Structures are given as structure tokens and as C-alpha cells.
């Protein structure tokens, strides 16, 4: 089966979060099921810089107002279609935000163009290759099934994956004429959303199947609290909604071979983590003592509960924990975490920024990773934590709920516990979890058991890729 995947970020070409990891790993995991994926993504400067000898596959003189070229290239096992449209993507800032941290004013056009290019490829415009199915990710690609519905394309099945309901791509109705859709597309059955235009809304209405990245989140988004205004639309499409938990690329994330990890290890050589722990203490200027190092590797935002970390940092230190924080995001949260580090030299270290190698080393050296998210569609850092023996301490929500087994008495006795879950996401909830963690950590036998169970849990793509493959084949026309 041939699949066109459409995503606004793909690891290792460009990454701002988990979407990139998934868009980069899933096509590789699907190969085993005879699924050949080409991934369409924007030609940001970072992408254009690293690709070598691309082949021109398709040209548009006027893709929603600017010329564009589709280039095909092989990159680390991925078959990538780069949408090279300098007017849209050749910019100094990041994929979505300018250098001052503001959304690009024309994000609607940048990502509608990506979606329209995908629909044209689906229609067979690119010589010698047409997909059997199209899989779009998040709001940035969600207009793909919308364009496919209204453009005269032969009917092809479409899947839309929601990675985060908090980002919906909502815009003023004024842009409607520029989207080049027929007038009847501006309706509640399609992209209209309370008089505005919703890209994710349109995708949810028009895709043949909808998936999200964990079974718990698939339930949660049916409620007011998590549906973020789209719970009604989700409920109306419940029969085609699937929750499939993310996996991780077990080659990129392997403590036995990871090139940035100083000392490699496995389940039977956990002691080797000690050297990595020393490097972490050095980097974050933490005392090299026995007090556990709790790590945070995260966007510093309200979703991720980072305000709760800032509010409890003094208490975490008072209880006997140390904190190593790597992240960037909300300037106010960055400020309060840096202030906490200044108050507790040797006990709290904060590094503001995005640092992929350091994120690996932290998983390989820290004792635990705290993920206090208010909502978390799947979450990947707890999966990396499990694989690396960095015990996850997580809020009981979304994919965190589905992937970590809480160390309660029964689970400990049965030797199935892999981490700590807590709820609600409040200062008291957080500190209760920290107290439990410190108590477990004090008994090295119990803690090692937790680490080992985590390392043995299956966080690979294997089972989930099989579920995507089954979904694809249930949608594809017979005989494919
Ligand atoms: P989200 O996509 O909502 O941010 P995920 O847990 O799915 O959350 O994915 C986050 C990804 O980004 C993980 O691969 C994590 O290791 C990485 N990450 C987050 N912040 C940083 C950072 N400051 N430096 C390096 N990697 C980071
Ligand atoms: C989103 C979600 C995160 C998920 C990732 C990949 O960024 O916030 O929970 O793991 O997408 O699906």
C-alpha cells in the first residue's frame, strides 16, 4: 500500500516537539507491513540546508498565490517530499513562530498551501506515483482532506491524527476567498466554526477516519474539559475515532548504543548510569551526592504543568530532591525556574533552550523524569524515560495514564510497576508524588526494580504500527 503522510515537522529534519518524532518514526515502523510512505513537509531553511540531490517531482506556478516545487529526497530511511516554496517557508524564525515568538500572520496560507499540495499529489498530479491513502497530522495538514473533498479528485481514504487538540488553526472568515474552496465549503459540516474558519475542525469533519495518540486522550476529548470546543464535532464522529498510543524509535533511543550517552548500559548494567549521572550533575552544576536528580525535559508551558514545578521547587529541595530542568517556552515560567535555580545553587539547575543531545543524556543519567501535564495526548518523554531507566513521575492523564504503571502496593508486589502517577495537578498532588518517589528511592532494591520493569516495557512502535496498518487496510479500496 502506498501512503502519503503530511506533516509540518519530521525528525530528524526539523523538530519542535513530539509530532516530529512520530512523523519520522511511524513510516519506518510501517515498512514491515508492506506500507510504503512518502512524507510531504514544508521546505524550511533547516530542511533545504541538509537535503542533497533532490529530484524535482512537481511544480506549481500558483499554489494559493506563490510558486512552489515538490522535491523528492531520501533522508535517513525516509522518503521525503519537500514543498519548496520560499515565499512561505524561507524565513528566519521557526516553523510556526517568527524570531520574536509570534505566530506568522500568514500561517493559514502557509499550511493551507501544504494541504493543497498534498491534495494535488493525491489526485495523481505527480508523475508515476499516486497514494492509496492519505494520512494528515494536526491542524497544519488538516485541510488536506478538506481540499480532497472539494477538488475533483478520485475518492481516496483519508486519516487525520490529532496530536494536540489545543492547537486548532482558527482564522478569520476573511481568508475564505483566498483558500479557493467552493462557497458551500463555508458551512458547519466543513470548515466553518462559529463564524470563523477552523482548519482542524474542517479536517475532523471531512477525514474518513480520525485517530489520536492514546486511548485515554480519545475518551478525554469527548468532554468539555479536553475537547477545547471541538468535543461536539468529535462526538459526532465517534464511530471513526481511534486512540492509538505512540511508540518510540528504539534505535534512536537506545541506551546501549546512543552516541551522545557517555557510558552505555542495559537492564543488567544499570550501574553504568552513574557516569552519565556525574555528567548531568556537572552540566547543571548540581551537588554530586546521593539525593535523586529529578529531570524535566519539556516545553515550559501551562499545558505541561510547569507553573506547578516552579511553585513547588523550594519544597522539592526541602524534601531532599534535586532538579535538572531543560526547556524553553513561556518567558514568565522560564524566569521563575531560573529564579528557583538562583535560590538553590547545587540543588536546582536550569538550562533554557532546545538541546536534543542533552535530552538523551538526561534520560541516561537522571534518576526520574517529572511530567506534570494538565493534559497530554500521548507524551514521549515518559516513554524515553522508561527505555532509559529514568523513572517517570507523571500526571494521571492522556497517554501518561496509558503508558506508566503506578507503583502502588499491588503493582509493586506483582513486579509490574514502572513509575508514579499522580492527580490532581496541584502543588499538593505534585509534592505527594515527590514524597512517594523519595520513599521508593530510599530503598535501592525497589527503585532498581522500577527501573528494570520500565526498561522491559514495550514502548516500541511494533504494536501501534500494526494498528495503523490495520486501520489503513480497513479504509483502502479492496484489492490494494
Ligand atoms: P510535546 O510534543 O507536547 O512537546 P512530547 O512529549 O510528545 O510533547 O514530545 C516532546 C519532544 O520534544 C520529546 O522528544 C522531548 O525529548 C523533546 N524536547 C522537549 N523539550 C526539549 C528541549 N528543551 N530540548 C530537547 N528536546 C526537547
Ligand atoms: C503532541 C502532544 C504530545 C504527543 C505528541 C506526539 O505534541 O502534546 O502529547 O506525544 O504530539 O503525538
Automatic annotation (TrEMBL):
Signal peptide: none
Major enzyme class: transferase
SUPFAM superfamilies linked to this entry: UDP-Glycosyltransferase/glycogen phosphorylase (SSF53756)
The UniProt record lists the keyword Glycosyltransferase: yes
UniProt-recorded Gene Ontology molecular function terms: alpha-1,4-glucan glucosyltransferase (ADP-glucose donor) activity; alpha-1,4-glucan glucosyltransferase (UDP-glucose donor) activity
Record's keyword terms, sorted: Glycogen biosynthesis, Glycosyltransferase, Transferase
EC number: 2.4.1.21
Residue ranges of domain Starch synthase catalytic in the record: 2-235
Pathway the protein takes part in: Glycan biosynthesis; glycogen biosynthesis
Residue ranges constituting the Glycosyl transferase family domain according to the UniProt record: 286-440
GO cellular component, one term: cytosol
TM stretches of this protein: none
Transferase is among the record's keywords: yes
Pfam short name (any one): Glyco_transf_5
Record-level GO BP terms: glycogen biosynthetic process
Positions bound to ADP-alpha-D-glucose: 15
Protein family: Belongs to the glycosyltransferase 1 family. Bacterial/plant glycogen synthase subfamily.
Role played: Synthesizes alpha-1,4-glucan chains using ADP-glucose.
Protein name in the entry: Glycogen synthase
Name of encoding gene: glgA
